């Protein structure tokens, strides 16, 4: 999933939970994730938190949504990856017969 789509969905989830995320903060978050790989989970989370969380009262909600949202995205990517590998293996078997 492209990072832009990933981030758009995450912002929607934050707003749905009541966190006030402005357009400027959204753009700041997009800039931050350009230089931080999603694989560096802690750095990624804290970069987003620094740009999207306005006060300490919002931190727990942010953290919970981050953990759930990005865990689901990782699981979806793993599932897609396994499906692609399976399709490649099946194609290889077909051509080797």
Outline:
This protein is an all-alpha fold. 81% of the residues lie in helices and 0% in strands.
Notes on the protein architecture:
- The structure is a single chain.
- Helices cover 81% and strands 0% of the residues.
- The protein has 97 residues and is an all-alpha fold.
- α1 (3-16) runs antiparallel to α2, α1 packs antiparallel against α4 (56-96) and α2 packs antiparallel against α3.
- The longest helix has 41 residues, at 56-96.
- It is globular, with a radius of gyration of 17 Å.
- The two termini are 34 Å apart.
- Residues 78-88 have low confidence and may be disordered.
Mean pLDDT across every amino acid position? 78
Ends: how far apart? 34 Å
Radius of gyration: 17 Å
**What class, by secondary structure content?**
mainly alpha
Number of helices: 4
Q: Work out the helicity level.
A: over 70%
Apparent shape: globular
State the order of secondary-structure elements, H for helix, E for strand: HHHH
Major sheet: size, sense and barrel closure? none
Strand content range? under 5%
| Total beta strand runs | 0
Low-confidence runs (pLDDT<50, min 5 residues)? 78-88
SSE layout and pairing:
Layout: H1 3-16, H2 23-34, H3 41-52, H4 56-96
Helix pairs in contact: 1-2, 1-4, 2-3
Brief descriptors of the model:
about 100 residues, mainly alpha, about 80% helix
């Amino acid at each position: 999933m492209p990072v832009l789509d990933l981030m758009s969905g995450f912002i929607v989830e934050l707003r749905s939970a009541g966190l006030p995320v402005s357009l400027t903060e959204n753009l700041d978050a997009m800039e931050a994730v350009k230089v931080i790989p999603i694989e560096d989970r802690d750095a990624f989370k804290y970069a987003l938190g620094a740009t999207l969380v306005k006060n300490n009262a919002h931190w727990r909600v942010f953290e919970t949504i981050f953990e759930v949202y990005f865990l689901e995205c990782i699981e979806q990517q793993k599932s897609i990856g396994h499906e692609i590998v399976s399709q490649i293996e099946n194609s290889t078997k077909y051509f080797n017969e």
